[in-house]
Recover the amino acids of this structure.
């Protein structure tokens, strides 16, 4: 009887897990495994002296989005060109790297609705650079969505992995994640938490890139919407000013003609 009850409980837990979003499930597993990992060591967590740095630059493909790209590329220009390589997602970033004669290691594209496969490709390339020793640190430079009127260029550490935080699949605009909290489902790990955490790290990094792409795309759409609204308002105000100036000139010409007619009549007696 006890075995049957345990089996039913386990099936209920698995059904609950299967119905949860991937990010929520990943958070639950990480919250369980992280405290039990002890002195966890993994190639992706290795701290090194930074001699070469990689920047994952998330920009837009098109302009007409106000100062979004200008602010982003201004931050990108602050890095030492001799010790920094760039992984660009978006044409504007790649064009900046080419114009500034900096080292472009790879260029990626992503759609208006970013796909997880696109984020995984960027993440894997960055991980390979780090694991091969080509770079000693990887950071992400992107535009963080704060609200509709505010988007902020932000540098977020990517590799080596430091503190593991909760994954957020949606656009929150609150920085680099929140504290992991344990759920109600208990997990049993085979062979041990260290191996499980090591296997989860690449997926955790993939999801980080995915969140960044979502926030960057939300920032782009919001900045473009505000820029186009400002352009429309300015055009309407310009039309209003020009119409007023035209009416003033027209009225002045009419008044001048009336004065000429009146003067001519008075001269003729």
């Amino acid at each position: 009887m006890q075995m049957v009850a345990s089996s039913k409980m386990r099936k209920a837990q698995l059904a609950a897990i299967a119905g949860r979003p991937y990010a929520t499930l990943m958070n639950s597993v990480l919250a369980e495994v992280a405290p039990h990992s002890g002195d966890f060591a993994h190639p992706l967590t290795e701290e090194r002296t930074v001699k070469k740095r990689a920047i994952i630059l998330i920009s837009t493909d098109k302009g007409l989005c106000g100062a979004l790209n200008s602010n982003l590329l201004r931050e990108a220009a602050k890095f030492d060109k001799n010790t920094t390589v760039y992984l660009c997602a978006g044409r504007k970033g790649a064009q900046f790297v080419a114009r500034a004669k900096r080292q472009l290691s790879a260029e990626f594209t992503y759609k208006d609705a970013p796909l997880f496969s696109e984020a995984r490709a960027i993440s894997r390339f960055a991980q390979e650079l780090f694991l091969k020793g080509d770079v000693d640190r990887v950071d992400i430079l992107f535009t963080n969505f704060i609200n509709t009127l505010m988007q902020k260029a932000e540098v977020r550490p990517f590799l080596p992995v430091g503190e593991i935080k909760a994954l957020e699949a949606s656009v929150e605009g609150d920085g680099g994640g929140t504290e992991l909290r344990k759920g109600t489902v208990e997990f049993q790990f085979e062979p041990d938490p260290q191996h499980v955490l090591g296997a989860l790290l690449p997926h955790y990094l993939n999801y980080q890139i995915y969140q960044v792409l979502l926030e960057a795309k939300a920032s782009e759409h919001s900045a473009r919407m505000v820029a186009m609204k400002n352009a429309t308002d300015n055009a309407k105000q310009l039309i209003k000013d020009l119409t007023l100036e035209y009416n003033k000139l027209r009225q002045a010409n009419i008044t001048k003609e009336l004065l000429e007619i009146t003067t001519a009549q008075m001269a003729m007696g």
The first strand starts at residue 53 and ends at 58. Strands lie at 53-58, 84-89, 103-108, 137-147, 150-159. DSSP finds six helices and five strands in the chain. Residues 37-180+187-223 form a domain with the Pyruvate Kinase; Chain: A, domain 1 fold (CATH 3.40.1380.10).
